[in-house]
């Protein structure tokens, strides 16, 4: 059949027109989600999802944030969020937090909220196997939506907490932001808001002001209830309609408002310095019209931008693989911004004295793309990576956590971006990706790389102020960049990762542990493999491994080489592949392998998709036997490390100095745990580091590997025999050396005077010998959790003395059984000792009387609820198995954890507290520099 040219042309145009019509269709909402709106204007999203089982993730999303505040209200959107946990109609004062804790919901970890410029969102994960608690959760959401009590006493108490949050945020970043943010916001309201507010307003606003703010903005039309979890959708919809449908609609709702940023044809420049800023950072930000995903065409455009970002940043990453990298770090990317804006941002963290070189390097890559575009091979790799990521999410559609769906629906409500659903998204990406042409992507710089609405920020150490470029010089560098660039050459190796297959070993012994679904294999080279197949994820296998030895086997003179050995080896890639070439080779594959050499052990950890199991095992094999030394890349890595340390020591960060000091004390001032200095980099012997790396991975018989995830043991065995069984082995069994690195004994007080801000921090660290048993470890964990409940209640809520305070306990069996329990907090320098005294009094009370039964019950239900979820997670099992085998424990002990929690009593915690709080105590305090002058008088 012959078709006339005019008819053929018509058919092509018709097909193109149909495609355009399809792309211009609105994105349909995920059909598995029930979306509705009540007569009063409140929106709701409901979805059934059983990951995790017997749980629901509830949210209240409010389209109100700092941008809605008037000047006298600055900070009150965030303050309102805090008040949601300090008294509601059904839960006076702090009863809401206490009620949820008593039902297994942790404050801070589970129960939480955040405020930003345009939204305030509350998170409430709850159990669904208790209808009483589940229904009560909707009472909480309803109270948050319109029934906060805003009691004056509670408001005044919370002032102290938020003032401490404000204090904790002080520092170089905050001071510089206060200078540059109004400049890049071009005089708009955005530049006058900072979410947290000001000290003056937080101290002095009248309670009626925040009550009016709450009443004005917390209206149904500005709110959404989001419920995703293991429940009946119809029942939840009925609950929402009954509880929230009765809330009156706003009679005269105040519009949320539009807050445009005035356009600027000239480039806005802010050059700011600070005494405590260690590095020079340059950011070029161009505001763009927002690309809002309303139609399939919008989604297609987003895909193009994603491909663009991926390819451009791959090129920038390659620049760090040189003998003299032009910067410490650099990237360019399109992203969302504030309000109705997107942005194109280029950032460079410059080397010392290298602001011009670093900035030009990033801008040259932008210009290279604008002039010559990307290559076909780059685009193909980017497409493969994007498709792989999308396919992975599709494969996990029935294993996705409820929280992830809830966050999507929050994004729809706040930003008006509909969630089409994982299946539709995968279908669309798979269909559209092949048709996105190189010409389309290469055309993007015309709209992204523009001088309009551009701002430049330079953040630098104050000591460098005199040598920084002036505004005119800076703009000259930017506007004249890329004049001499040439086209990018894409270097790819078209060969297999392994030139020859290893000589496979065999499984010589097999043991089943049916209680926990584990199979133990011993291979002919002596390597042991522990396998736990699961159905927790469809597209995930995690692995861990260890062998005893580590840096402990090397004398102090060789320590730095041993410590850096795995990092130096990683710089060169493996086999015949450089690190850059290896990344390209792994395009479209999900296989991640990282090596480590610690104090007592060495090994490899990672993850892979079941379809890429062989690739992952090839990578493991190659990292064992074919590490690749790349002198040029290693030289660049060491040069950047030295430069970073030089800048760090020239402008020490107060918190960094404090924790370096604490680490030194906790390790008895052992030279191996002292902060690394620039001169130490010059001592690194690359050849020795590579030799040590090879030594640590020369003997497969000393290794144990753990694989947890979606695989079948019988199908996996041949790959294990081929690659792990093919590893070389000496048959020698090594162990670590106990270097006797311990904290200083007795009561030690250490004060660090650093920083210009009026803020302080403290760490109280108890440590000592420990009888390592499952029962003792459980009681130690109980102390940690109960202390966190108690410290928040007493020191934060009652004393209003801190924003954060935490207890953290750990027990280690190797090299000798020991425990550590630390308490950390930040506060007003004038209260640092007072709060330490009050904290120690809480510990003494626990030693004397044990915990209250109420707090003990909270610990038990929280821990058991957490275990219910963790027992269905690959990560939990990978870590548990690795830990039990390292410590020589029975891996089945994990099944006793629920029983061990039940066996904890007031008396057992009291007894453990007497041991823990009777040991060595290190009290480390960080105070402002000005306090040193005062104390020395």
From TrEMBL:
Family statement drawn from the similarity comment of this UniProt entry: Belongs to the peptidase M16 family.
Q: Any one Gene Ontology biological process term?
A: proteolysis
Q: Where is the Peptidase M16 N-terminal domain?
A: 48-167
InterPro entries this protein is in?
Answer: Metalloenz_LuxS/M16, Pept_M16_N, Peptidase_M16, Peptidase_M16_C
Tell me the domain of life.
Bacteria
List, for all copies, the residue spans of the domain called Peptidase M16 C-terminal.
Answer: 205-386, 693-860
Kindly indicate where the leader peptide sits in this chain.
Answer: 1-20
Q: Does the keyword Hydrolase belong to this entry?
A: yes
Q: Which SUPFAM superfamilies match?
A: LuxS/MPP-like metallohydrolase
* Gene3D superfamilies per the UniProt record, alphabetical: Metalloenzyme, LuxS/M16 peptidase-like
- GO molecular function terms attached to this record: metal ion binding; metallopeptidase activity
Q: What is the lineage of its organism?
A: Bacteria, Pseudomonadati, Bacteroidota, Cytophagia, Cytophagales
UniProt keywords, alphabetically: Hydrolase, Metalloprotease, Protease, Signal, Zinc
This one is known as Peptidase M16
